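Revision sheet: structure tokens.
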Amino acid sequence: MNEKILIIDDEIEILTFLYDALEDEGYQVLKAANSEEAFKQLKYGPDLLILDVMMPGMSGFELCEQIRKSVDVPILFLSAKQTENDRVQGLLVGGDDYLVKPFSLRELKMRVHAHLRREERKSRNQQKCLYFGKIHIDLKSCQLFYDAREVSLTMREFEIVQYLAINCGQALTREQIYEKVWGLEATGDSITINEHIKNIRAKLQKAGEQDSIISTVWGRGYRWEK
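Predicted:
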């Protein structure tokens, strides 16, 4: 079992209890006690989130709205708030399920299993995001996010980013990139890739990236860094 589950709860006892229980089931378990830690853990690409509602600072509802801008995995709310309005709000902000504290561990495990099984049934074409630090790339919607905020790219720029990111760590020539993005029959000069890379770097830098994730491989082309 390779699925990753991220638990977000400021109650350390519950965090530890759920961590141990789900790890015993064979899941890879990540944990966070607040929104800041949660965003850091998202880079590991969890397959499901268990999210508390009442937390200091950013509430679970607010955090869910932010996460939903770049992450499309099941989110299960776990909360002591049990009114109908609370449950409805949880679903409206992007949650997929809502379980009230105190809860049955057996029921929680069954719900986690059901959501993950449902995800497995989705088409392989519904690809997930790629994660590189604060950069999230949604291959399905053709969007790039930096620190949960969208970075506006042209379609050509996104296709270059997608090709480089999927081949992370590999040095790709301008000719390879040009043929992949523009097509084998395209007529033009691969030198145009330089200008597109320059624009992509500028947009990421404006969004807050300090070190360019796209490095220049002198004499060859470009590489998306791991």
